[in-house]
Amino acid sequence: MKKCGVIFGIFAVLGIGLLLLIVILVLAGGTSYNRLVALNQEVNSQWAQVENNYQRRADLIPNLVSTVSGAANFEKSTLVEVTQARASVGQVKIDPNNSPTDAATLQQFDQAQGQLSSALSHLMVVVERYPNLMATENFQELQAQLEGTENRISVARMDFNNAVQSYDTAINSFPANLYASHFGFKEKPYFQAQPGSETVPKVQFNFNGTN
Q1: Which of 106, 134, 195, 201 has its CA 20 to 30 A from that of 128?
Q2: Domain CATH for 107
Q3: DSSP 205
Q4: Residues 172-201: pLDDT tens digits?
Q5: Which residues have CB under 8 Å from 201's CB, separation 6+?
């Protein structure tokens, strides 16, 4: 009987220990799950900011093209390049409220935006040949808005990458890595740096016809 009591006591201790371990794991898992939800929401929030800033740039382009096209003998091919690049951006459909989980989709979006950035940079170089256009109040206002938007895009991309890094690190850390995929938490892709992307497109001028 004494042995049975000892064995029962041992099993009781083990059972209590196991129960406590399960409770700890459940609590830790619940806390970790809630953190993943919060980090995912932060990534989506930063993605929305990226989309908003790119959309703001796209919204400036029709007025910019209209203003520039009024200049005598302005290179029409440059305006066509900008217009077509803007149209290509609109063809890449990504939910503005949910960040992409597919690297190829994000790359396609980034390439389209990069082509538009290149077209705008080319446009601004050509505009330097038209000092009278550069001196107009409307163009100067558009130039200032575009410059500010490019800066905001750069910051938004950096903030998005930082949010993705925190999220991706969390879902690959214990204990989240045990259940993250089961609950639909998957790694998200980053914006990849492009050559020259460390500087924003040049949109600022000296109004004497020189850089």
Answers
A1: 195
A2: 1.20.1440.20
A3: -
A4: 998 888 888 888 899 999 998 754 444 444
A5: 117, 118, 120, 121, 124, 150
